[in-house]
Design brief:
Bound molecules: copper (II) ion
Order of helices and strands: HEEEEEEEEE
Shape: globular
Number of strands: 9
Number of helices: 1
Largest sheet: 5 strands, mixed
Strand order of the largest sheet: 1-7-5-2-3
Radius of gyration: 18 Å
Oligomer: single chain
Length: about 130
């Protein structure tokens, strides 16, 4: 009997741990990391005020990893023209300061993104990818 109870306790803990791991970590088309990986091209998220820095990121080549470095709490990164998500990449929720989010840009082009919380206040940016 004692062994059976232990099994139940362990199973409950395992399920809780798995669910906790999902919270805040979901994303599509990218990955949440901390901090930005070496060699990635960085964009600061809200280093001072409701803006990305640089607002228009150039110098990105196809295959490069862009990393958004969250400098303040309460922002997200969502791809698309302001303020409509296009489903290409997103953090799927606001992130805390210290978090970072990566996306690999495979093709050339100019890609718009925004913070869905503050898009109406002009918190938008672009990444220009060129060979
Ligand atoms: Cu924001």
């Amino acid at each position: 009997m004692r062994a059976a109870r232990w099994l139940v306790v362990v199973a409950v803990l395992a399920v809780n741990g798995a669910m906790g791991g999902c919270g805040g970590g979901s994303s599509y088309g990218g990955g949440l990391v901390d901090p930005c990986p070496t060699g990635s091209i960085e964009i600061q998220v809200a280093p001072s005020g409701l803006a990305f820095s640089p607002t228009n990121r150039t110098g990105v080549r196809p295959g490069d990893t862009v990393c958004w470095n969250f400098r303040a709490d309460g922002h997200d990164v969502t791809s698309g023209a302001p303020c409509t998500a296009d489903g290409d990449f997103a953090t799927a929720g606001v992130q805390p300061a210290g978090r970072a989010f990566t996306h690999v840009f495979a093709a050339a082009g100019t890609f718009q993104y925004f913070c869905s919380v503050h898009c109406g206040m002009g918190m938008t940016g672009t990444v220009t990818v060129a060979p």
